[in-house]
């Protein structure tokens, strides 16, 4: 599938099959995240792959978004390692982690897997539940897996503002 078709077809999956994600596909998704652009190539992103029933149960307690995917990716960044813009010192770690997340989501779609970007969670709860994330800032939970039978895009998926409303050529 070409990129234009892939980006238009990809949707936020909210109904997952219990089928496991093959390690080869998971590795390709993680590699896509590793290859994502980051400011000054500092790569401050950290990705946690939650697959065990215990880990999935712990992360489930940190959010009200329960999609029961067989894999949950937690994308975080290390603010100390991220590039800071000269002048106002804006930390670009969150931007870098968001780029990584988007690239992994598109790779998953190309492989026939579904994802959704979950930003509705308690970061402090995540950090308390997973001491391995100490010193990091989690920005996204990404449920990952195969679509369940009957899964489909939301009714708003194809609703897009006209390009003219979103883009100004100067």
What does this structure look like?
This protein is of the alpha+beta class. The protein has 6 helices and 4 strands. The chain has helices at residues 3-9, 23-34, 53-60, 93-110, 123-129, 163-166, and strands at 45-50, 71-77, 114-115, 137-145. Strands 1-2-4-3 form a 4-stranded antiparallel beta sheet, with helices on both faces. Helix 2 packs antiparallel against helix 4 (93-110). The protein is globular, with a radius of gyration of 17 Å. 29% of the residues are buried. The model has no long low-confidence stretch (mean pLDDT 96).
Written as H for each helix and E for each strand, in order along the chain, the element string is: HHEHEHEHEH
Give the assembly state of these chains.
Answer: single chain
Number of helices: 6
What is the strand arrangement across the widest sheet?
Answer: 1-2-4-3
How do the helices and strands line up, and which of them pair or pack?
Blueprint lengths: L2 H7 L13 H12 L10 E6 L2 H8 L10 E7 L15 H18 L3 E2 L7 H7 L7 E9 L17 H4 L4
Helix pairs in contact: 2-4
In short:
This protein has 170 residues and is α+β, with helices and mostly antiparallel strands. The chain is built from 6 helices and 4 strands. Helices cover 33% and strands 14% of the residues.
Keywords:
170 residues, alpha+beta, 4 strands
